[in-house]
Write a sequence for this structure.
């Protein structure tokens, strides 16, 4: 049993102050913009919920949201099973464990704009390693700046390259916490590999996988820097995800009202999906 | 070698290819890069690195980034340690709601908050300081730190605290001399994640700085647009941004595996 102790609030106070300063003030600024209209002369007029209605009806927002959902769904479908498969086949002890961990963590520690720039250099049609190989060795016509399909595939492969290791690290942590006795018991029962995975490893990984999926969902839903550096949202609007579109509206056109309303809707959507997922996944524990 | 090792090996090869290409580019001259495709640098040049190590705008970019990332890691850990202890040991009014609210801050799209952050930090007079970036990164790093540390602390039996108090330890002395050393591994893993997320973030860091605290990533983007097509220089700068991360991983390599196993993450 945990002790009932209201003094615990003093322990939490520094965190509360720091996060509130960074979260509440900017959030209130955004809320403030979202209900006002301005003509660029620093005078603001009450606009009620007008911007919210406009945004919810705008086809541009629907299109960006659609692309965003498709992107997030695709990378989750690829990264989670792939990450689990790699974690399952990784060595459990010995010299190769730290080698694997260090090499696999590398992409996680590269600044996001460098990731974008790196993939840009890697995929240049005539002088990039991948671009040259696809065009001149395999004879596939590949040019990210012209073909939306190529741009999409590249952005997805880049994200898989960048983030699968996070799933691997978390899944691996879940796997090595399984006591040896479980495997011995499975051996005595002559359980198949599939049965071991399904009834021992997967349940033990449930918690870490919940965290991995949540983190990947939240971060991929907010993705901005990497695709912005790699494709600039193009060709056309084909890789303009929600955050890129938002920045275009807010800083490019300086339409603060619609941008603020859009970001609140976007935030609420992320919050709702994360909460639903978290509640469903942790339902059995309570 | 077992046949199943093929999966991690192929995966690591896939991870290394773009990194190899970046490194190869950084040793090529601009002429060679634009002249055509070559798998290895034909004439090795260190000019790109020389430019970075002799130009203060470049090398100060690295120092600035390292300064605010270190500040952020220290601030986040100091604030999160007592809070995580409270969440793992006590139940208090509103604890569950507070925990979930903290986590929601990781979900806020950073791109949205760029402009309000700029206004906020200008208003309090911190614009273009390392402290501004370090504090702003607390938005997503503190919730993460509390989350990971809470997992590790809950894995430590409560009897440890009780027996220390019975032995007459005061709370601060118990916390600093017994409890913190016990969760060393957890702190290592947390520091790794804090460093990682602060080091790789660019949007807020770029918004909150102009000259004095400009991060390396911002120096890179500005160079990319002003100096035209200096791919070799860009590649060399990119390679140098990988090195601090590689050093950090090397130090926590044993903690990552063992540490995760202890905590319930």
């Amino acid at each position: 049993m945990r002790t009932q102790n209201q003094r615990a609030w003093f322990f939490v106070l520094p965190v509360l102050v720091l996060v509130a300063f960074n979260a509440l003030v900017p959030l209130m600024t955004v809320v403030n913009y979202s209900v006002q209209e301005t003509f660029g002369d620093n005078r603001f007029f009450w606009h009620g919920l007008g911007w919210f209605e406009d945004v919810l009806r705008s086809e541009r927002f629907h299109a960006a949201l659609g692309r965003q959902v498709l992107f997030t769904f695709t990378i989750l479908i690829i990264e989670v099973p792939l990450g689990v498969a790699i974690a399952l086949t990784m060595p459990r002890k010995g010299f190769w464990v730290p080698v694997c961990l260090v090499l696999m963590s590398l992409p996680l520690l590269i600044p996001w704009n460098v990731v974008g720039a790196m993939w840009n250099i890697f995929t240049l049609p005539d002088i990039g390693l991948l671009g040259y190989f696809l065009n001149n060795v395999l004879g596939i016509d590949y040019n990210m700046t012209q073909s939306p399909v190529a741009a999409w595939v590249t952005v997805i492969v880049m994200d898989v390259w960048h983030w699968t290791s996070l799933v691997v690290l978390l899944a691996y942590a879940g796997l090595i916490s399984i006591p040896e006795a479980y495997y011995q018991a499975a051996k005595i029962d002559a359980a198949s590999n599939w049965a071991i995975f399904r009834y021992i490893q997967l349940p033990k990984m449930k918690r870490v996988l919940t965290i991995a999926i949540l983190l990947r969902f939240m971060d991929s839903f907010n993705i901005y820097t990497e695709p912005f550096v790699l494709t600039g949202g193009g060709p056309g609007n084909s890789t303009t995800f929600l955050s890129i579109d938002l920045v275009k509206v807010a800083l490019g056109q300086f339409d603060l009202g619609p941008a603020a309303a859009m970001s609140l809707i976007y935030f609420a959507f992320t919050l709702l999906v994360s909460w639903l997922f978290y509640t469903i996944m942790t339902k059995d524990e309570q | 070698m077992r046949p199943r090792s093929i999966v991690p090996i192929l995966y690591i090869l896939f991870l290394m290819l773009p990194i190899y290409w970046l490194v190869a580019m950084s040793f090529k001259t601009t002429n060679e890069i634009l002249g055509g495709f070559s798998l290895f640098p034909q004439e090795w040049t260190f000019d790109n690195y020389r430019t970075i190590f002799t130009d203060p705008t470049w090398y100060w970019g690295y120092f600035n980034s390292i300064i605010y990332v270190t500040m952020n890691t220290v601030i986040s850990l100091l604030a999160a340690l007592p809070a995580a202890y409270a969440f793992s040991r006590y139940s208090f009014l509103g604890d569950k709601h507070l925990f979930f609210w903290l986590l929601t801050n990781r979900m806020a799209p950073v791109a949205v908050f760029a402009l309000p952050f700029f206004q906020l930090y200008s208003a309090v007079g911190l614009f273009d300081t390392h402290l501004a970036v370090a504090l702003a990164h607390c938005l997503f790093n503190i919730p993460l730190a509390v989350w990971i540390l809470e997992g590790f602390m809950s894995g430590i039996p409560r009897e440890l605290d009780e027996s220390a108090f019975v032995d007459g330890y005061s709370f601060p002395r118990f916390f600093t001399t017994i409890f913190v050393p016990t969760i060393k591994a957890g702190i290592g893993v947390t520091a790794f994640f804090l460093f990682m997320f602060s080091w790789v973030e660019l949007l807020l860091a770029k918004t909150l700085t102009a000259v004095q605290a400009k991060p390396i990533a911002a120096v890179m983007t500005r160079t990319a647009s002003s100096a035209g097509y200096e791919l070799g220089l860009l590649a060399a700068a990119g390679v140098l941004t990988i090195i601090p991360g590689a050093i950090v991983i090397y130090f926590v390599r044993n903690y990552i595996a063992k540490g995760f196993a202890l905590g319930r993450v």
The longest strand of chain B covers residues 90-91. Strands of chain B lie at 90-91. Residues 107 and 140 of chain B are 8 Å apart (CA to CA). Chain B has a mean pLDDT of 83.
